[in-house]
Amino acid sequence: LLNLFRKKKHVLVMFYAPWCGHCKRAKPEFTRTAEHFKDDPKTELAAVDCTRYSTLCASFEVRGYPTIKYFSYLKTVREYNGDRTETDFISFLKDPDAAPKKSEKTIEPFGDFQGSNEILLLTDSNFEEVIKREPSLLIMFYAPWCGHCKNMKPEFAKAAQLLAEEKISAKVAALDCTVHTKAAERFDIRGYPTLKFFREGQFRRNYEGKRTAQDMLKFLRSGGSPTKDEL
Questions:
Q1: Residue 103, pLDDT score
Q2: Are residues 122 and 218 both part of a single domain?
């Protein structure tokens, strides 16, 4: 595979897992794109099953499925963040340096609660940067229409405020899954709110404790150790 990367100007690789639903939906579009470029000597599409070739996937920092990466003679390596349709794949490979068609979706305000200004607001674009930058991070994946999310928001904001006041090296963040769908898909979010704890850029565990500011604060003070409610 690495020899292929070195020889081709344009290589698009889908890193996937056989059980992944999003991968199954993307596969026909990816296959049709490969057929489109079959006679182009400079362009190639490939797929890597990360359940079989885990070392290779780890070497390219694959953390979710599907992850699609673009290679040019193995010198240029970057993640493909466009839509997973045949049309979008073809358009990208014809001009990888062109500006994306879609403008970045705007960040919606979390809500006007005491402490909400301390919450980091995540998007598909800044997600990776933020989780790598912050040493400890509790992320609330939510939907604006979700009643449980609405009930939890004031406590989540209060936790953010307490963390700032106590100068604890941990933060809380929120992602609207109805707008920024790629990050939600990457972590297979199926219900709202879902809370996930990250440390040093890596997902560590789900938070299953009580949704009060004090309980979340206690969890983050401990560096992500389970609370009594989770044991």
A1: 41
A2: yes
The yes-or-no answer on residue 23 being catalytic is: yes
Number of domains observed in the structure of the chain: 2
76 and 153 part of one domain: no
Residue 140's pLDDT is: 98
Active-site entry in 23, 50, 57, 177: 23
Buried b / exposed e across 35-60, counting CB within 10 Å, b at 16+?
eebeeeeebbbbbbebeeeeebbeeb
Determine whether 149 is an active site residue. Answer: yes
* pLDDT digits 0-9 by tens, 168-195: 989 999 999 988 999 999 999 989 999 9
Residue 107 within any structural domain of the chain: no
In the residue annotation, 177 being an active-site residue is answered as no
Task: Please report, for the domain that includes residue 51, its CATH number.
Answer: 3.40.30.10
Decide if 57 is catalytic: no
Which is catalytic among the residues 20, 50, 57, 177?
Answer: 20
